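Curious: why this fold?
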Amino acid sequence: MENQSPAAPPEAPHSISDPSPARRRLLVTGASGFLGWHLCRAAQATWQVEGTYHHHRPPLPGVTLHAVDLTDLRQVEFWLSELAPDAVIHTAALSQPNRCEQAPDLSYAINVEATRVLAQVCGARSIPFAFTSTDQVFDGQSPPYSETSPTSPISLYGRHKAEAEVLIQALHPTAVVCRMPLLYGPPSPTAECFLQGFVRTLEAGQPLHLFTDEFRTPAYVEDAAVGLLLALETTGLLHLGGPERISRYEFGLRMAEVFGLEKDLILPSKQADVVMPAARPPDVSSNSDRAFALGYCPRSVTAGLEATKTWRLD
């Protein structure tokens, strides 16, 4: 999450008298982020979408955008109360585990305190609220993880997200907490995912060291966005993992195959080979059967990589 410019004054809330689902207003926090931008695009088919951003106003035709400093808690509470959307999906976060370890106060302000205020306002007004948590709330020792698995985070990022989950459940019992997996896909105009860095490294003819002992259930970002919209129909905990358990190394090999890059440049490594500020759980693969039953249908890793390769901005 970037440092933010001063927030714009609260805008007058739109009328919500129109009962048509297409005119109900959805607020997406973090619209300039990788997930938030794709979510805003997907949501426009069924919602009137509004989004928050930091310095960088994202190009999102048809979306009403607001510059909001989520660490200014009083301003956020007043602004959200005035805006009174019909639903909120909270994607804004400081989501890089290493950066959270290096900036713990900022991580707490964004990942916990801002979430608390949003949940409190939405709970008081009975506004449907979906929160994007993470598979990093688990220690990676007892996969696959379902919604009934106890949390056991080993990084500050995971601990802050787990704390936010507890606050949401207390302040807004009908909210839904969506634990997101590793997400990949085409970049937004203002944010990338890890995939773009992998591709640049191989295109430059440089070696790419990837873990053989770190497993995830990655999801294509546009599928995850659809999952978040479905999540607004339920409450409680919901896992939005992809359909395959795969190591970082195997993911890289599939990426190289789909993108026509040199597989021999992808070198196997172990988590212990790399010292990082944040501890990394070895296997946080998710059981997402509950989401599948709602209609969530994420594509395979190969299909998601192929979609990324051919994706074009409208």
